[in-house]
Automatic annotation (TrEMBL):
<dbReference type="Pfam" id="PF22848">
    <property type="entry name" value="ASD1_dom"/>
</dbReference>
<dbReference type="InterPro" id="IPR017853">
    <property type="entry name" value="GH"/>
</dbReference>
<protein>
    <recommendedName>
        <fullName>non-reducing end alpha-L-arabinofuranosidase</fullName>
        <ecNumber>3.2.1.55</ecNumber>
    </recommendedName>
</protein>
<keyword id="KW-0326">Glycosidase</keyword>
<keyword id="KW-0119">Carbohydrate metabolism</keyword>
<dbReference type="Pfam" id="PF06964">
    <property type="entry name" value="Alpha-L-AF_C"/>
</dbReference>
<keyword id="KW-0378">Hydrolase</keyword>
<feature type="domain" description="Alpha-L-arabinofuranosidase C-terminal">
    <location>
        <begin position="296"/>
        <end position="488"/>
    </location>
</feature>
<dbReference type="GO" id="GO:0046556">
    <property type="term" value="F:alpha-L-arabinofuranosidase activity"/>
</dbReference>
<comment type="similarity">
    <text>Belongs to the glycosyl hydrolase 51 family.</text>
</comment>
<comment type="pathway">
    <text>Glycan metabolism.</text>
</comment>
<dbReference type="InterPro" id="IPR055235">
    <property type="entry name" value="ASD1_cat"/>
</dbReference>
<dbReference type="InterPro" id="IPR013780">
    <property type="entry name" value="Glyco_hydro_b"/>
</dbReference>
<comment type="subunit">
    <text>Homohexamer; trimer of dimers.</text>
</comment>
<dbReference type="InterPro" id="IPR010720">
    <property type="entry name" value="Alpha-L-AF_C"/>
</dbReference>
Length: 495
């Protein structure tokens, strides 16, 4: 059978929130320190302590929203330790991540500066696990109160006159695990209590995000929606893609066997089932889909690179990661009526990163390139796609050979994302273009592909995997003919 695909350019399915292209940066390993923050006295060129090369790279992919300070770190972070003169800030132990000393040099002011420089919205995750209601309430007051108040005055003493706009605020993280090992009933009650004091000051209207389920814990979603749904704007979901067992061996980021290629792809597709099932429960309590699903941690999680600190979660990033990213975007687009935001874990040097650094050197990963190629879908309108695609079988695994998405941007351009997950065979097929105007002025495309399953960029070969012009598409008799090489992600634009 041949893949059969129809793009219905005149059937609009809703807006793809740009926040689906969001990010997550935690005080973990070398993400914040070294990866983003080098300090004002560093020989690495920086803007008020934030390294310029990383800043420039991240600006290019239009990060819409950035989640911080964790992750598990958030539930042991005490924000007051991270403000005021840096030399006086408390040094703490980052017990979750490698037991290293956290000097708190990157705190609220530094994070807000980073967001300003990136022109993205902050998404702050507050501490429920080991923090107090008062502490959370005062953080919101510190950041957003406009006028005279103890916290606003303190902010001004620390050099910031105007309040910041903070829309997205998470009330805890993974409270079923590192955020307090709570039962959903207990967390639902705590959520109701803590969120009461997450106030809206002046024009600042906070979008409150409750800590959601771990993977397929559907009971968590049921209880949270039932007991606290009316007090939240968003409910999170975490799912990481890995070919192996979390504790026994997740699988290597490079040099992996063919089976792990397909297992990883199968796991990436599993995100669709997860969102569908959690969404169905949310529909029961919120049929209008007011509460957004916030997939604020997703991405690949492999074994750390040999010789690196196991608590730092540093892994290489290959064409396999690029395929995983594309599959996720296609799934998030498909569910854009419920998925309001997604945040890849994590932006720099941790898990499925955009950029990797080594001293003053920096490289872009294959995942970065997918974010760059796909930024055209941010805030575009999802188009209906009918796809009947070939299944690829490998041992006990079976997955769709191709994955596809399409959107129309505000200028009427149609953007198509395509991915061939097959590691050996190319995929050639026709896409019927329904509802597209007769005269197509131009067709252009970009491809990211590689010859080996673990092709990746290194500090010696930074451009081993990079996008090039795609010449495998043409329009004939109103149909789009494409030929996708094995292991490829393609972005096409029709004007
Ligand atoms: O992203 C790494 C960790 O994964 C986060 O800190 C935590 O929330 C999740 O378990």
């Amino acid at each position: 059978m041949s893949n059969k695909v129809v793009i219905n350019a005149d059937v609009e399915k809703g807006k793809i929130s740009k926040h689906i292209y969001g990010h997550f940066a935690e005080h973990l390993g070398r993400c914040i320190y070294e990866g983003i923050w080098v300090g004002e006295d560093s020989p690495i060129p920086n803007t008020k302590g934030i390294r310029n090369d990383v800043l420039e790279a991240l600006k290019q992919i239009n990060i819409p929203v950035l989640r911080w300070p964790g992750g598990c770190f958030a539930d042991e972070y005490h924000w007051k330790d991270g403000i005021g003169p840096r030399e006086n800030r408390k040094r703490m132990v980052n017990t979750h991540w490698g037991g290293v000393v956290e000097n708190n040099h990157f705190g609220t002011h530094e994070f807000m500066l980073l967001c300003e420089l990136l022109d993205c919205e902050p998404y702050i995750c507050g501490n429920v696990g080991s923090g107090t209601v008062q502490e959370m309430s005062e953080w919101v007051e510190y950041m957003t109160f406009d006028g005279e108040s103890p916290m606003a005055n303190w902010r001004q003493e620390n050099g910031r006159q105007e309040p910041w706009n903070v829309k997205y605020f998470g009330v805890g993280n993974e409270n079923w695990g590192c955020g307090g090992n709570m039962r959903p009933e207990y967390y639902a009650d705590l959520y109701r209590r803590y969120q009461t004091y997450v106030r809206n000051y002046g024009d600042n209207k906070i979008y409150k995000i409750a800590g959601g389920a771990n993977v397929d814990d559907y009971n968590w979603t049921e209880v949270l929606m039932r007991e606290a749904g009316r007090y939240m704007d968003g409910l999170s979901l975490h799912f990481y893609t890995r070919p192996g067992d979390f504790w026994l061996g997740k699988g290597a980021a490079t040099g992996f066997p063919e089976y792990e290629w397909f297992k990883t792809v199968e796991q990436a597709y599993f995100m669709d089932e997860l969102i569908t099932k959690h969404s169905t429960i949310m529909d029961k309590y919120d049929p209008e889909k007011r509460v957004g699903m916030i997939v604020d941690e997703w991405g690949t999680w492999f074994d750390v690179e040999p010789g690196t600190n196991p608590g730092f979660l540093y892994q290489q990033n290959t064409i396999r990661d690029a395929v995983v990213a594309a599959i996720h975007f296609h799934i998030f687009h498909k569910h854009c009526d419920r998925v309001h935001m997604a945040n890849i874990a994590q932006t720099v040097n941790v898990l499925q990163a955009m950029v990797l650094t080594e001293g003053e050197k920096m490289i872009l990963t294959p995942t970065y390139h997918v974010f760059d190629m796909y930024k055209v879908h941010q805030d575009a309108t999802l188009l209906a796609v009918d796809a009947n695609v070939n299944r690829h079988k490998y041992e006990d695994l079976e997955v769709d050979q191709i994955s596809i998405t399409a959107s129309k941007d505000k200028d009427g351009k149609v953007h198509i994302g395509l991915c061939n997950i097959d590691n050996k065979e190319s995929a050639s097929f026709a896409i019927q273009l329904r509802g597209i105007k007769e005269q197509i002025a131009s067709l252009s495309g970009t491809i990211l592909t590689a010859d080996t399953m673990d092709a990746h960029n290194t500090f010696e070969q930074p451009d081993a995997v990079k996008p090039t012009e795609f010449t495998g598409a043409k329009i004939e008799n109103g149909e789009l003919q494409v030929s996708l090489p094995p292991m490829s992600v393609v972005s096409l634009t029709i004007e």
